[in-house]
Specification:
By secondary structure, the chain is mainly α. The chain is 75% helix and 0% strand. It has helices at 3-8, 23-31, 35-57, 60-77, 88-121, 126-147, 151-162, 167-173, 178-196.
Length: 199
């Protein structure tokens, strides 16, 4: 028996190992209801989503709730994901950022309602006066630090963190490349942190 005949019945050997599916492939499969794909995607997206929620919400319990809501939204809205329009992680982070901003706005609205109620139903005590003065000083410091940013950084920070725009929306409004916006925001936040002496 020659060598060719001895190997004819064997299947061809694959020299290259199978590469794991990309997040985009997994998210596309999630959009078709593939639970196993979601299990594989979860460890890829959960950490970054929680990190973003923590940065926006600044409360651990609230950030965990926001992250959970965002991951549920990933499962529900995965059919809307279009890999031609961007990466899976960007899409997930956009969902997370929107939910985090909504949570902050909701908390702010509740705090405003509480303050309005308290102002109508209580007379002002001395301690409340000192708190008001302290809050005004803090707001003035934030305003001063924001004004110390470069005009491009300030505009990007105000759109992304005060108007609640996503990075992509900020880039579109400013007609600027997404990577440039991310750099401006990173640099602007570092300058704000240093100005406010936040550790």
């Amino acid at each position: 028996m020659d060598e060719a005949e001895g190997t004819a019945g064997r299947p061809a050997r694959a020299d290259a190992p199978c590469s794991p599916p990309s997040p985009e492939d997994l998210l596309t499969r999630v959009g078709r209801g593939d639970q196993d794909a979601f299990r594989q995607l979860y460890p890829v997206i959960a950490g970054p989503a929680l990190g973003l929620a923590r940065r926006v919400v600044r409360d651990e319990a609230q950030a965990e709730e926001v992250c959970q809501e965002a991951l549920i939204a990933v499962w529900r809205h995965a059919p809307r994901f279009d890999p031609a329009r961007g990466g899976a992680l960007t899409w997930v982070m956009t969902l997370t950022h929107r939910r985090a901003v909504e949570r902050v706005r909701s908390a702010q609205a509740a705090a405003d309602r509480d303050r309005t109620y308290a102002a109508r139903n209580h007379h002002t005590a001395f301690d409340e006066v000192s708190d008001t003065v302290e809050n005004r000083l803090e707001h003035e410091q934030v305003r001063r630090c924001v004004n110390a940013l470069t005009p491009l950084q300030r505009e990007s920070v105000l759109l992304a963190y005060y108007d609640g725009c996503t990075y992509r929306e900020t880039a579109e409004r400013l007609d600027t490349h997404l990577g440039t916006i991310k750099t401006r925001l990173r640099d602007g936040l570092i300058r704000l942190r240093d100005c406010l002496a936040v550790t």
